[in-house]
C-alpha cells in the first residue's frame, strides 16, 4: 500500500502507531515535503502562488528554485511587496495532514520522536501509541521581530512552576518550556522584519539554522529540529533601525529580492483583489477603468517623487486604501443625495488624499512641502500623466502654433470671465448642468472618444478640466467642498479678498 495514495478520510481514521506503520508511512523532512509537492505542481502546471501578481517571471521562479534546493529563505524588499503573503502561501505546498504523537508539544513524528514526552509514550505503549493528525494550516508560525523579543520566546526556558508542580529537579529535561521555534518543528517558521531582532537574539539562531540543534539554560540537549525558516527584511532597516548580523546572513541560503508592480495593469489587479469592499458598495458605485488607472498612477508618481523618501518605499497598501476611500467618497455622495446608484468622479479624489498622507514618508518631513500638499501634487501628476493618453498633448499643441487647437473653445469660454465650481457632493443633475454649460467641452470628448454613455462622457469632461489645469491652460482652486475652475490669467490678477472661499491652488 502506498501511503501517498491513501485518501484523507482514511488517513484521519488511523489512531495508533501500529496502524500508521501498516500503511507504509515514512518520515520525510519539511524541506523534502515542500520540494516533493512543488515538483508535482510544476509538472501539473499548477500555480501555488495564486493572487501574487507581478512576480511570475521574477520572484516566484527564485522561490521555486530555493524550495527545490531545500533552502531557508530571506525576502528582502520595501514595505508592501507581499513578502509575508508569499510566506503564508507556502503552506499550500505542505501535505494536507501529517501524523504526530498525540499530546506532544513538539509535533513529534511518530517514527522520529524528539521530545521526552513522545519517547516515553512510544516506550510505554509501543504500536498502541495514540496518533493525531495535524493540518497544514497549523504548521505555520509567524513572529514579528521587535526589540523586546527574548531567547526564551524563541528557544525556550526553564519553567519553575512546572518544576514545582511536578516535583522535578531543575536538571530534569521535563522542566523546560519550549519556545516558538521548537514548537514549530515540522512547520514553516517566519520572522518578519529580521533586522529589528537584537543581535544577541540573532546569534541564538546560528546553531538552529546550521546544525539544527538548540541549547536551553545549559541543558545538554540536542533537538534536531526540522523547520523551514523564512525571514523578511526591509533594506531601510539595515541602516535605520538594525542589521542582520553577518554570520546569520551567511547561514540563510537564499535571499530573494522583491519589487513593486511594474505596470498599471498589475497594480490594478492587486488593488481590486485586496480592496475590502462591501457588496452594496460594488453594486451601487460604478468605477471607470480610467479612475482605476489614476489611482495606480498616484503610487507610480509617489515612487518617483523628489519629495518622497525612496528608501522607505510606497506600499501597495496606498493604492488599496486610496481605492477604498474613493468608493466610500462616491458612496457618501450617493447616500447624501438619496440616489440608488452613482458613478465615480474626479472630484471624489478629495477622499483619496487621507490614504496618501499617511503612507508616504517625506524626504523633508515638516518643511515646506507638507504631506497634504505632496498628496495633492501626486494626484495632479497622476492626472497629468494619464491625460495625454485620452486627449491631445497640450505641450505639442503649444509648440505647433499653426495647427488646430481643440481646447480653444474651452479656454475662450473661461477667458470671458466664466468659472465653474465642481463640488464633491453635487447631485447627478447639478453635476451634469455645471459641466454642460462649458462651450466646447462636450464636443472635445465626442471628437476624441465618440459616443459614450452619459456618465462616462461627463467623467471625461471633468477629467479634461483637471488635465487642462495641470497643463496650465486653466486655473484650478481648491474649495472646501470641491474645485473651482477659471481662466488662468484672470486668477493671477485677482485681488486679495476676492476669493474668500478659495483655499489654495494646486
Briefly characterize the structure.
This protein has 506 residues and is an alpha/beta fold.
Task: Write up this protein.
The protein is an alpha/beta fold and 506 residues long. It has 25 helices and 15 strands. The strands form five sheets. A five-stranded parallel β-sheet has the order 4-7-8-1-9, covered by helices on one side. Strand 13 (475-479) and strand 14 form a beta hairpin. The radius of gyration is 31 Å and the shape is elongated. 35% of the residues are buried.
Protein traits:
single chain; 506 residues; alpha/beta; five-stranded parallel beta sheet; four-stranded antiparallel beta sheet
Mean pLDDT: 87
Shape: elongated
Which stretches are low in confidence, meaning pLDDT under 50 for 5 or more residues running?
Answer: 495-506
- SS elements, strand count: 15
* Strand order across the largest sheet: 4-7-8-1-9
Amino acid at each position: 500500500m502506498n501511503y501517498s495514495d491513501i485518501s484523507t478520510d482514511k488517513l484521519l481514521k488511523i489512531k495508533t502507531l501500529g496502524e500508521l506503520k501498516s500503511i507504509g508511512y515514512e518520515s520525510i523532512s519539511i524541506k523534502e515535503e515542500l520540494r516533493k509537492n512543488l515538483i508535482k505542481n510544476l509538472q501539473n502546471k499548477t500555480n501555488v502562488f495564486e493572487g501574487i501578481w507581478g512576480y511570475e517571471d521574477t520572484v516566484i521562479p527564485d522561490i521555486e528554485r530555493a524550495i527545490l534546493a531545500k533552502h531557508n529563505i530571506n525576502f528582502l524588499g520595501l514595505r508592501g511587496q507581499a513578502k509575508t503573503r508569499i510566506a503564508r502561501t507556502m503552506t499550500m505546498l505542505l501535505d494536507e495532514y501529517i501524523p504526530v504523537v498525540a499530546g506532544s508539544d513538539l509535533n513529534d513524528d511518530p517514527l522520529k520522536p524528539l521530545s521526552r514526552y513522545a519517547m516515553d509514550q512510544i516506550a510505554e505503549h509501543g504500536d498502541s501509541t495514540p496518533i493525531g493528525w495535524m493540518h497544514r494550516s497549523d504548521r505555520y508560525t509567524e513572529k514579528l521581530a521587535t526589540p523586546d523579543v527574548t531567547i526564551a520566546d524563541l528557544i525556550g526556558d526553564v519553567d519553575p512552576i512546572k518544576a514545582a508542580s511536578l516535583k522535578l529537579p531543575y536538571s530534569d529535561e521535563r522542566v523546560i518550556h519550549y519556545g516558538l521555534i521548537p514548537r514549530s518543528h515540522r512547520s514553516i517558521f517566519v520572522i518578519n522584519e529580521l533586522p529589528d531582532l537584537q543581535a544577541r537574539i540573532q546569534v541564538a539562531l546560528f546553531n538552529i539554522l546550521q546544525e539544527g540543534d538548540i541549547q536551553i539554560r545549559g541543558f545538554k540537549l540536542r533537538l534536531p529540529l526540522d523547520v523551514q525558516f523564512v525571514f523578511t527584511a526591509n533594506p531601510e532597516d539595515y541602516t535605520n533601525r538594525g542589521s542582520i548580523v553577518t554570520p546569520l546572513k551567511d547561514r540563510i541560503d537564499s535571499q530573494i529580492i522583491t519589487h513593486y508592480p511594474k505596470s498599471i495593469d498589475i497594480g490594478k489587479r492587486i488593488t481590486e483583489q485586496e480592496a475590502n469592499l462591501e457588496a452594496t458598495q460594488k453594486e451601487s458605485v460604478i468605477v471607470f477603468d480610467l479612475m482605476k488607472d489614476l489611482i495606480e498612477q498616484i503610487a507610480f508618481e509617489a515612487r518617483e517623487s523628489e519629495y518622497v523618501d525612496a528608501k522607505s518605499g510606497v506600499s501597495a497598501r496606498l493604492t488599496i486604501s486610496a481605492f477604498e476611500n474613493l468608493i466610500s467618497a462616491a458612496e457618501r455622495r450617493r447616500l447624501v443625495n438619496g440616489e440608488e446608484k452613482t458613478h465615480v468622479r474626479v472630484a471624489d479624489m478629495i477622499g483619496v488624499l487621507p490614504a496618501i498622507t499617511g503612507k508616504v514618508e517625506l524626504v523633508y518631513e515638516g518643511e515646506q512641502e507638507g504631506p497634504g500638499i505632496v498628496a495633492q501634487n501626486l494626484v495632479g501628476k497622476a492626472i497629468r500623466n494619464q491625460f495625454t493618453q485620452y486627449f491631445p498633448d497640450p505641450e505639442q499643441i503649444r509648440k505647433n502654433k499653426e495647427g488646430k487647437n481643440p481646447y480653444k473653445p474651452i479656454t475662450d469660454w473661461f477667458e470671458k470671465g466664466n468659472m465653474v465650481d465642481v463640488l464633491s457632493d453635487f447631485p447627478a443633475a447639478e453635476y451634469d448642468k455645471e459641466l454642460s454649460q462649458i462651450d466646447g467641452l462636450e464636443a472635445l470628448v465626442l471628437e476624441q472618444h465618440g459616443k459614450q454613455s452619459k456618465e462616462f462622457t461627463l467623467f471625461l469632461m471633468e477629467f479634461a478640466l483637471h488635465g487642462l489645469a495641470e497643463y496650465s491652460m486653466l486655473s484650478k482652486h481648491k474649495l472646501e467642498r470641491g474645485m473651482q475652475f477659471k481662466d488662468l490669467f484672470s486668477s493671477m490678477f485677482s485681488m486679495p479678498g476676492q476669493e474668500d472661499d478659495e483655499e489654495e491652488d494646486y
